[in-house]
Amino acid sequence: MAFVAFDGDEILGWCWGYHLVRPDTSSMLYLHRLEVTPERRRRGTGRALLRAFMSAGVRAGATRMFMTTGEANAAARALYESMGGGPATQGPTVNYWFPLQPDVAA
């Protein structure tokens, strides 16, 4: 799954990842990458992209989402934690698990 944020012809940011269906038929999302252009950071673009990704996952039946970011990436960590992500610190990266609910797009 991939999402791109635009303002006219200008790309503001993008994200992509996978909807993973498990053998037990449960499913989850893996967010591989979320990027926002430097001049558009801290303006809601990343939050909107993350909400779009999560909402699409909920519609596809996913009940959890995970992703990894660098331990020193304070801005990304603040965004993920503000949206309900819970960290599981492991070495130089920080993994986040998100419970997904139908109201995630609110």
Describe this structure in words.
The chain is built from 2 helices and 6 strands, in the order E-E-E-H-E-H-E-E. The chain is of the alpha+beta class. It has one domain (2-105): 3-Layer(aba) Sandwich (Aminopeptidase). It has a 6-stranded mixed β-sheet, with helices on one face. Helix 1 (45-59) links the parallel strand 3 and strand 4. The longest helix has 15 residues, at 45-59. The two termini are 20 Å apart. 23% of the residues are buried. The model has no long low-confidence stretch (mean pLDDT 88).
User: Which blocks of ≥5 consecutive residues have pLDDT under 50?
Assistant: none
Oligomerization state = single chain
**Average pLDDT:** 88
- What name does the CATH topology carry? Aminopeptidase
Instruction: Tally the helices.
Output: 2
Radius of gyration (Å): 14 Å
* Strand ordering within the main sheet: 1-2-3-4-6-5
What would CATH call the class? Alpha Beta
CATH superfamily (homologous) name: Gcn5-related N-acetyltransferase (GNAT)
Bulk shape? globular
